[in-house]
Write a structure and sequence with these properties.
There is one protein chain. The chain is of the alpha+beta class. The protein has two domains: 3-109, Immunoglobulin-like (Sandwich), CATH 2.60.40; 142-354, no CATH class. Helix content is 55%, strand content 18%. It is built from nine helices and eleven strands. Strand 5 (38-47) and strand 6 form a beta hairpin. It is elongated. 22% of the residues are buried. The model has no long low-confidence stretch (mean pLDDT 86).
Length: 361
């Protein structure tokens, strides 16, 4: 088989020499450095003369280190060689006349001044990184914090998924009849999950998570008003279909939100779950607030009639102030909270997709 010479392109920096051998699908690549500072290359591949055995030798201008790093791709073989001394070479080879198969690699070519600028920039970047890392104090409790957050999200995921699965099964089996006893079958687990959700307000205050304190407070407080005040204190509300829709919308959102945060604790990203986390809230969150508003409106006449939680007033002002007035104000605040939380979630969504685009590019 005829032995041929491939096209070789070179470039340099103060510390390294780069060679790019135009040989696709290279096999049996053998690269060695001889005692006389000569690089010897031999490989089987597809070059300018088709599929053949290709080889070349280069005697470098100055000594290089014996460690040679190379990487073969479908199109070429990339070689990186370290210089013994960090200095700029006038040419690559000891012989003044450049070999015919050798040419500058203009994709990586820099003159000496540009290379010096690049070297200074890398050194400044390295020193800045060292300076920043020295100022950052490593958190000795990071593993413990991640373990706590993982377990919290796991418990919440199991609780809300239990509610979601049970309500779905009951809906398929009983149909509309399942609307009327949702509270009696699901309330205990929902009580547990919503009491646990108080930690979502505490965690940002302790610096365990980077999410905002006020959006978490608005959501947790709003849901607890609906659950404990509207549904929990009024037996007349517990058999209404609106309970089903409120519980079902809450559990659907959380069944995908908590496992997303749970996997984030172990630096794992599941694309399907990530997409659901940042898109499912768009229809479900406003629907959940609408369902909560319906529950509040339905409870107003019941609070007026029962005088539950009414505020006693002096005789000159009347007997009492109905709690329904407080709930009417709460309705306005509910939709204000919807705007704040939707704006917050939209910003999180935009930030997430911008960061993913940067990673792709």
């Amino acid at each position: 088989m005829q032995v041929l010479t491939p096209h070789v392109y070179w470039a340099q920096r103060h510390r390294e020499v780069y060679l790019r051998v135009e040989l696709s699908d290279a096999k049996n690549v053998d690269i060695s450095l001889q005692e006389n500072n000569t690089l010897q290359f031999r490989a089987q591949g597809h070059g300018a003369k088709g599929d053949n055995q290709y080889m070349f030798t280069l005697e470098f201008l100055e000594p290089v280190k014996p460690e040679i790093h190379h990487k073969s791709t479908q199109r070429q073989v990339d070689i990186k060689i370290r210089k013994q001394e960090e200095r700029w070479w006038d040419r690559l080879t000891l012989q003044e006349k450049r070999p015919l198969f050798l040419a500058p690699d203009f994709d990586r070519w820099l003159d000496e001044s540009d290379a010096e600028t690049e070297l200074q920039a890398k050194e400044e970047q390295r020193l800045n990184k060292i300076s920043i890392e020295s100022r950052l104090r490593k958190d000795p409790y990071l593993g413990l914090k991640k373990g706590y957050l993982f377990m919290y999200n796991l418990v919440q995921f199991l609780g809300f998924s239990w509610i979601f699965v049970n309500m779905t099964v009951r809906l398929f089996i009983l149909g509309q009849d399942s609307f009327y006893d949702t509270f009696h079958t699901m309330a205990d687990m929902m009580y547990f999950c919503q009491m646990m959700a108080v930690f979502e307000v505490i965690n940002p205050l302790l610096g365990l998570v980077k999410t905002g304190f006020f959006p978490a407070l608005i959501q947790v407080a709003g849901r607890n008003v609906i659950l404990f005040v509207i549904f929990g204190s009024l037996e007349e509300m517990q058999n209404k279909p609106v309970v089903f829709f409120v519980f079902y919308l809450w559990s659907t959102i959380e069944t995908f939100r908590y496992p997303f945060y749970m996997l984030a604790c172990i630096d794992t990203d599941w694309p399907v779950l990530t997409w659901l986390r940042y898109n499912l809230w768009i229809p479900l969150y406003p629907l959940g607030v609408v369902a909560e508003a319906v529950a509040v409106i339905q409870s107003l006449p019941i609070f007026d009639e029962s005088r539950l939680f009414s505020l006693l007033l002096p005789a000159a002002l009347g007997h009492s102030l109905s709690f329904s007035y407080t709930l009417q104000l709460y309705l306005v605040l509910m939709f204000l909270g919807l705007f704040i939380n939707v704006r917050h979630l939209y910003k999180l969504r935009q930030r997430r997709y911008r960061s993913r685009k940067r990673k792709v590019h």
